[in-house]
Design a protein that fits this description.
The chain is an alpha+beta fold. The protein folds into two domains: 190 residues, Ribonuclease Z/Hydroxyacylglutathione hydrolase-like (Metallo-beta-lactamase, Chain A, 4-Layer Sandwich), CATH 3.60.15.10; 67 residues, Arc Repressor Mutant, subunit A (Orthogonal Bundle). The strands form three sheets. The chain has a seven-stranded mixed β-sheet with strand order 1-2-3-4-5-6-7, covered by helices on one side. The chain has a six-stranded mixed β-sheet with strand order 8-9-10-11-12-13, with no helix packed on it. Strands 14-16-15 form a three-stranded antiparallel β-sheet. Helix 3 links the parallel strand 11 and strand 12. Helix 1 packs across helix 2, helix 3 runs antiparallel to helix 4 and helix 5 crosses helix 6. It is elongated, with a radius of gyration of 19 Å. The protein starts with a strand and ends with a strand. The relative contact order is 0.11. The model has no long low-confidence stretch (mean pLDDT 96). The chain binds zinc ion. The site of zinc ion (ZN) has 8 residues, from loops.
Length: 271
């Protein structure tokens, strides 16, 4: 097992579930050495949970999850069974693709604080990738745990109805209000310069939105299959089924903005 020390109080262990959507695997973070908080115990892999337990030395205080997709929260239930520690997080608004075992002992809300002598974690509601997505800021070290709100090395998929592009952009903008030194993502390595990372992500999404607008205004009406080919020219065709989710999310945002209309399976440019 590979344990990486991220800072004075943070250790990381990565689950053995690499893939297109998960990069090198799901990162599990352990905060503190006495009253330990675990963030995202990951998928239900016995070996991964056993490795986490070995790192805890019986000092687990709580289990936090960033959201309830299957690569982040299912191990919470197993870890609770082994340690008795309570599970905390938020419930999603839609059931599809969510962890059915997720049953939190405490529902967290935006602005909640978790304080120990060694550290304080601030809870931030960041809907967009998922309606119940939470980030956690380790205030004393200015580290933000971003789950799938920000990943390193793979693009975050926004899949409606639980995924929402308008909310995703709002949640990214919200991060710019905080003084942060580094991002500890749910997948991939730590990222420095959080402000630059967040600004680039916003730019990337707005560029993609512009491509949707350009394609639709040129074609005047098109269905998802026609649009994905036009808007994601730079993306490998094998990824089109995934890209279609984010495309749909962009279209829903543009419909909310009053720029696009939908008639049956076709989208129309309104401006
Ligand atoms: Zn994930």
């Amino acid at each position: 097992m590979k344990i990486t020390k991220i800072s004075k109080t943070v250790r990381r262990i990565t689950a053995n579930n690499p893939g297109v959507m998960t990069g090198g695997g799901t990162n599990t973070y352990l905060i503190g050495s006495e009253n330990i908080t675990v963030i995202d115990p990951g998928p239900p892999l016995e070996e991964h949970v056993d490795n986490i337990v070995k790192m805890l030395h019986g000092k687990l205080k709580r289990i936090l999850v960033t959201h309830t997709h299957l690569d982040h929260s299912p191990a919470a239930y197993i870890l609770k069974k082994k340690t008795g520690a309570p599970i905390m997080g938020m419930m999603a608004l839609h059931e599809a693709n969510q962890d059915p075992t997720f049953n939190p002992d405490k529902i967290l809300e935006d602005g909640d604080k978790i304080s120990e002598i060694e550290y304080t974690l601030r809870v931030l509601h960041t809907p967009g990738h998922a309606s119940n997505h939470l980030c956690y800021i380790l205030s004393n070290e200015k580290i933000i745990f971003t789950g799938d709100h920000i990943m390193n090395g793979s693009t975050v998929v926004i899949a409606p109805p639980d995924g929402d592009m308008s909310q995703y952009l709002n949640s990214l903008n919200n991060l710019l209000l905080f003084d942060l030194d580094c991002i500890a993502p749910g997948h991939g390595d730590v990222m420095k310069n959080p402000k630059e990372v967040v600004e680039n992500l916003i730019k990337h999404r707005l560029n993609r939105e512009k491509k949707v607008i350009d394609a639709l205004s040129k074609m005047s009406r098109a269905n998802l299959d026609e649009l994905v080919k036009e808007v994601y020219r730079d993306v490998n065709k094998g990824l089109y089924p995934i890209a279609k989710y984010s495309l749909q999310a962009h279209l829903i945002k543009l419909m909310k903005d009053g720029k696009v209309a939908q008639i049956r399976n076709e989208f129309l440019w309104r401006c």
